[in-house]
Request: fold
Amino acid sequence: MRVLVAEDERKTASFIRSALEAEHIAVDVCHDGPQALAGAMGVSFDAIVLDIMLPGQDGLSVLRQMRQRRNRTPVLLLSARGEVNDRVEGLNIGADDYLAKPFVLAELVARLRALVRRGNEPTPRLLRVADLTLDTITRQARRGATAFDLAAREYRLLEFLMRSAGRVCGRMTILEKVWDYNFDPGTNIVDVYVRRLREKIDADFERKLLHTVRGSGYVLKEGK
Reply:
């Protein structure tokens, strides 16, 4: 397992390197945005730890360019605790997870391993429910002849629901599988993303595929 750590605070970067190397993980470290982008595009890593606040080019810009160039390496964002909007933007443009500073090194290691495990899971290229298809390589969704653009988290949610087609998925299960960890149980983030997904895959079609099961969660299936 090889990880790129892009962190401008050298003491923090050193702590992360030591924690990962103690787990027998190979680590490359850089301290600014241009180096992070060059490293990500030039070397094959299993995961990248990417600080949002990098000199030269911020982490969100690095991430955006990576995804535009079809680099799908799992990315764990690091951010100051108050940078909520930046974290949300990062998840929307393709980050796989985030940690707010200060964080526990053991949790960082555990989340990286979870990202790598998920990335190594075998994935059939084309998922299908009725006339809805999802190409897991290009991340292109279609309903019949209509194509949809999906934000990163919308894609993750749709992929999970399609893999679970016909089964009711509770909100907490969706949080754990799509976001990889637990949010405050009172959050409505699942409902927000389900609503966004419905607007794309169901709103303009007579036959609805994404259904609410009152008191239980959501199910993607053909028919009522």
User: Anything to note?
Assistant: The radius of gyration is 18 Å. The mean pLDDT is 87. The longest helix spans residues 105-119.
